[in-house]
Amino acid sequence: MSTVLALSGGVGGAKLVHGLAQVLPAEQLVVCCNTGDDFTHVGQHVCPDIDTVLYTLSGLANPELGWGRADETWHFMDTMAVLGGETWFRLGDADLAMHVVRSQALAAGQSISAITADLARRLGVAPTIAPMSDQPVSTIVLTPDGELAFQHYFVRERCAPVVTGFRFEGAAAAKPAPAVAATLGDPKLRAILFCPSNPYVSLGPILAVKDIAAALARRRAPAIAVSPIVGGVAIKGPAAKMMAELGQEVSATAVARLLRPYIDGFVIDDTDADQADGIRSMGLKVEVAPTVMRNTADKRALAEAMLAFADRMRTA
Amino acid sequence: MSTVLALSGGVGGAKLVHGLAQVLPAEQLVVCCNTGDDFTHVGQHVCPDIDTVLYTLSGLANPELGWGRADETWHFMDTMAVLGGETWFRLGDADLAMHVVRSQALAAGQSISAITADLARRLGVAPTIAPMSDQPVSTIVLTPDGELAFQHYFVRERCAPVVTGFRFEGAAAAKPAPAVAATLGDPKLRAILFCPSNPYVSLGPILAVKDIAAALARRRAPAIAVSPIVGGVAIKGPAAKMMAELGQEVSATAVARLLRPYIDGFVIDDTDADQADGIRSMGLKVEVAPTVMRNTADKRALAEAMLAFADRMRTA
Fold it and tell me: Which of B262, B8, B83, B63 is nearest to A101 (CA)?
């Protein structure tokens, strides 16, 4: 009963992973990162969610921006503007090295799994950080005006277009990354934790990989999620806007309903305690806890609460 | 009698081009840059000699390093080192944008000619800056221990290996770039100026493009060169070392002998005035002038001296 698998998307996911990394030995934590956001930009292969986890665990993350590195400089980007290059997706001078090294390794035939493991080692990140898949899966946002690649929707259009649905290009052919498959199949798996990430575009691509969904369906370890919606708003990002546009109630309860097929338990914030009974009526165990992670202590406390919740479910 | 074509390699070439740009209207100056040094590094297409000219003419050049940009930062490179990327060829944060923009445009099917023209326009460089060819030509340095790609010899190995010869891969299939071909064929061509660049690895690749050599052979405009060897040493770079290793005398006279098939006149430094008669005996006109360019006035004076020399030859 030793390994914990965390499914993680963007900033919220990385925060919980940071908490887990503080309370678990490194060899007991495997992080499955969403790669549906990945794209090729100015010729470089960018993996935003993997990098957010790597930067957060290595202490390099920029806490103000919520992406990229602290103490970043922008001379490359400033010069791109002078030269007529694309500037809508900002790559810092130091951050750019990640994408250049990754792109070179990809071109040399290495897998995203191998590349991520090497980058993690170079940055002193000890837990296993894995992509959900080594095959490309691209999140496409459906809008009334047509389809948008995820970063075009998210960064270039600042989430302004109305969302009518999603498509995960390549998901049908994608296999779970080796570390993810091995962890899901590990008889000593202690818990599967869904980080407080956007259910559509952070967890959605992971669940669109059929063999991951299938392994979750036959899980023996408890799977628990934590709501990214607190008090009817998203802690960060477009989750609430998307839910509203898709005709969903914007609530922890609605997130629980979306994830219901994959989980046994659901963690909601103290603010949403009045939704506990409704969520229990779906057949889920519910834990009420402080879920907003403002600092390191918050992250650690939520990680501990989720692990304790999972362990109680196992022995119940 | 209006256009001047300058054949340019590295730093010495860019200095004379800078002088020419001060004394000629922009529309009368066409610079044919060596692209034998070009290579793909960390996935980016780098054109060192084109960039040296662009940076010099735009006032961005780093006068201390002799390459790259002034006021450069190195956060990309520092992070490459942390991540295990290649660091032997240093790319500054701002400089990197040139290579990324160029690589993207190349991948989109643009020619080096078109890309260089666009970069020049973006940097406010008005004279025509052209590659010698839009087809790739790669300078290979032959050594007793085998072949070395030029930048591996020049930067990684710091010119330490003994040189036994050169090979210009791709030269047989390379055509002159459109601007170079048009200028060589222009009946109003005023002069062809060989900048004080390494005769083997700066001018050599240009002359290895057959249609350039053929156009030079049937030239009607005077072609004059200036010696990069002054007082038996190279002003910059490995020219003197190469000459010695190839069994040549290290002198202006020896450079004149190498370039003899392509030129009508040769400019030597005051220091080497005693070689004038010997060079004249090869059938070349000789001009003795200060050729060491320490500042803007020196560059301008040499440019004016070369143009006056060429004009005198025309009317003689």
Answer: B83
- Which of A42, A83, A96 minimises the CB distance to B119? A83
Q: Which residue of B has its CA nearest to A60?
A: B79
The span from the CA of B165 to the CA of B160, in Å, is 14
| pLDDT at residue number A64 | 79
Q: How confident is the model at residue B224 (pLDDT cuts 50, 70, 90)?
A: very high
Q: Indicate yes or no: CB of B101 within 8 angstroms of CB of A84.
A: yes
Structure ipTM:
0.92
Question: Which residues in chain B are contacts of A105 at CB distance < 8 A?
Answer: none
Length of chain B: 316
- Alpha carbon distance B233, B291 (integer Å): 13
Task: Please give the model's pTM, rounded to 2 decimal places.
Answer: 0.93
Residues of A in contact with B54 (CB under 8 A): none
Are B43 and A79 within 8 A, CB to CB? no
Q: Check CB contact under 8 Å for A97 and B85.
A: yes
Alpha-carbon dihedral A297, A303, A305, A311, rounded to 10 degrees: -150
> How far does B194 lie from chain A, in Å, by closest CA?
29
In chain B, which residue's Cα lies nearest the Cα of A80?
B97
**Helix pair B112-122, B48-57: axis angle to 10 deg:** 20
Reported as a pLDDT band with limits 50, 70 and 90, residue B201 is very high
Ramachandran assignment for B158, one of left (phi > 0), alpha (psi -120 to 50 degrees), beta (any other): left
Residue B45's contacts (CB-CB under 8 Å, 6 or more residues apart) are B38, B39, B99, B102, B103, B106
CB A17 within 8 A of CB A8: yes
| Cβ-Cβ contacts under 8 Å, A94 against chain B | 75-76, 78-79
- Listing DSSP states for B149-166 in one string gives EHHIIIIISTT-SPP-EE
b/e map of A15-40 (b: 16 or more CB within 10 Å)? bbbbbbbebbeeebbbbbbbbbbbbe
pLDDT score of A1? 55
Q: How far is CA B286 from the centre of its chain?
A: 22
* Domains detected in chain B: 3-315 (3.40.50.10680)
Chain B interface residues facing chain A, Cβ-Cβ under 8 Å?
42-44, 72-73, 75-80, 82-85, 92-98, 100-101, 103-104, 107, 118-119, 122-123
CB atoms near residue A74 (< 10 Å): 20
B127-137: pLDDT as tens digits? 999 999 999 99
How far does B189 lie from chain A, in Å, by closest CA?
31
Give the type of residue at B313. Answer: M
